Amino acid sequence: MICHDCPRNCGAARTAETGSGVCGYGTTAHIARAAPHFWEEPCVSGEKGSGTVFFCGCALGCVYCQNAEINNGENRGRALTPEQLREHYFKLIEQGVHNINLVTASHFTDAVIESLKGGLPVPVVYNCGGYEKIETIERLAPYIDVWMPDLKYTDSALAARYSRAPDYPRIAKAVIIKMYELAGDYQLDENGMIQKGVIIRHLILPEHLENTYRAIDFVKENFKPGKILFSLMAQYTPMPNGGPKRKLSADEYEAAQEYLFQSGIEDGFIQEPDSSGEEFIPDFKGM
Description:
This protein has 287 residues and is α/β, with parallel strands linked by helices. The protein is built from nine helices and ten strands. Helix 4 links the parallel strand 4 (100-103) and strand 5. The model has no long low-confidence stretch (mean pLDDT 93).
């Protein structure tokens, strides 16, 4: 298989077990963790947790990634067939989770599609970094209920510096608009749990408030109230591989929050600054 599933377009010759491309994996899905997760947005985690499946590897490779252990090849997780992957979904569903939450799965698109054929009795959430190809999103669309992309950067220089992806702002904005076209307005059930729609996440980076302001501007300019949910995240944690060397300051947090309030965006969430730190990084040492 010659792979062009992500915007890197590396053209890697991937077999089931080997891959020479940016993600470093073959076509067989590798997962590091499958468990109820309680640290997502309230409409995703709820009281019973989100059935989160963390896939190994990533084509974006942000230097400050909290999940670097599983995204840089250090922890290659467990290889699963689509049938085995589906079994894990149902094990989580039996535990009462509100949804199945697929984290950073685009480089395993074929395996994910196979695992979702036949549907699931709970919503499927596609949790990604926003650096996706529209063609790949369209292939996944029949199987996905909720799109949860990041909008990491609105500044190409920043995207190049921290993710080697100067094209990120253009690509992520177009993909987010496409996700909305595919999913439509967000819908919550009677318990406030999301059933379909788009949740746009933005992580505030210390020292780069203009990047956050422009992300808020993008949401305001492209989505009327009631269309999507926006999540402003404050959990940035300094990591050894790069990125800003400190956590978000109180002044930066307050400035970002005030800009969001002034924008008029009301559908969404604001993460508390005490949600940062290594204690919030999932344990990837076992399934």
